[in-house]
Amino acid sequence: MKISRNDLQKYFENQLPSTSAIADAFTFHCFEIEEVDGDTLDIKVLTNRAADCNSEAGIAAELSAILDMPLKNILSDGFSEKTVDVSLTRINAILGADFSEADVEEVFRRLRFHVEKHGDTYRVAAPLSRIDVELPEDVAEEVGRILGYDRIPETELPSISSAPDQARYRGIERIKDFLVERGFIEISTQSFAKKGEIILANPLDKTSPALRMNLEKGIKIAGMGAKQYAPLVLGPHGEPALFEVGTAFIKVGEKLYLALSKPTPELNNLLGIESISRGEIIHYDLSEVALENLGRDYMPIRYELSAYKPFSVYPFITRDIALWVPGGTDISSIESVIRENAGELLVRLDQFDHFEKEGRVSYAFRLIFQAMDRTLTDDEVGGIMEKITGVLSAKDYEVR
Length: 400
Description:
This protein folds into four domains: 2-67, 2-Layer Sandwich (Phenylalanyl-tRNA Synthetase, Chain B, domain 1); 84-151, 2-Layer Sandwich (Phenylalanyl-tRNA Synthetase, Chain B, domain 1), CATH 3.30.56.10; 167-295, Bira Bifunctional Protein, Domain 2 (BirA Bifunctional Protein, domain 2), CATH 3.30.930; 317-399, Alpha-Beta Plaits (2-Layer Sandwich). It is 32% helix and 23% strand. It contains twelve helices and 17 strands.
C-alpha cells in the first residue's frame, strides 16, 4: 500500500517525524517497507494484518501504537467477543523476556485492547478488526513487537550433548545423488493446492486454499516449463528428467514422497519398493523406505558451483540448418563459419544429425538466438540466417 507522510499527518494532532523515521519505525516493528519515494512509503501489509491495515486509517492506527502518538479521532469498531486469557508470567515465558506489568499494560493501551485483570491473569479483547489476535502467543507477540525485540535479552541455546543422528537426512541425500548422477534435475514446488484434505484457515493465495495430497501437479507444471527451455539448456537431444522429494498432506498425517518425470527401474533396487505410476509421473512413498539404513554409512556428494553467469529473461528463437559438404570436410570449420556470421546473438550451436552418401556428408545444426536486452523478432533472426546461408553457399556447400 502506498501512503504519504501528508496522508498520515491528517490523523495526528502532533507533528509526525520524517518520512525516513516513519519507515524505520514500521521496519523495526515488523512491517516491510518496499520503497520510499520522496514522502511516500510503499508498505507491504502481510496477510495476517490485511483486515486492520488495509486503509489509510488502519495504517495510521498502527503508526499511533508504534510511536505512542494519539490520533485525532479514535473510532472504535468494538471488541471481539473471543477473549484471550494470559498472565504476565506466560508472556515473559513465551518471549524469554522480563517485562513488567507496566510494560505490558502500556502495550495494551497503545493497541487499544480492552483488558480486565483477574488476579494474575489478563483477559484481553482485541478490536474487532484484529482477527489475528486469538491466542496467548498472539498477545505475547504484540507485546514484543511494540516494546521492541531489541529489549529481549539474548539467550544462548543449550549445547548439544551428542552429535545428532543425520542418517535419515543422508538417506534422502543418497537418493538425490543417485538421480542426479543419472541426469535428473531436482525441483522444489509449492505445497499449496486448489483441492485437498487439509484446508488452510488463512491461505496466502485464495486460489490455493488447501495443502497438496501428492506431488503430481507440481512436477507436471515444472515439466512443461523444462521442455520449453530444454533446447537452450540441454541441446536438441536433451530430454529433461525431473524429480522432487517433498511432503504431501492427508488427514491421517504427512507423507514424504519422491516423484519423477520418467521411470528409472534401477531405483526400485536402491529403495527396495515398487513405484506407483500416476499417469506420466512416477511416485515412491518414502515412508515405506528405511531411510536411516540407506544413509547410515553414506557421505553426500559435495558439488562445487561455478561462477555466476548472467542469463537473459527474454525468449529465445530456434533455427535449424542442414547442408551437404564434401567428404573429409572438418566439421569445426563449418561451425566456425556459422558462429562468425551469426554474431553475438547466437547463444548455442549443436550438431544434431549427420550421414554420408555418395562421397558427401550431410550435417544438420540447431542454432539458438537470444538477446540480453530485448525480444528478438523473426525478421531479425531471418536476416542472420540468410547471411549464414549465403556464406556457406559461397564455399560451395549445398544448403538444404
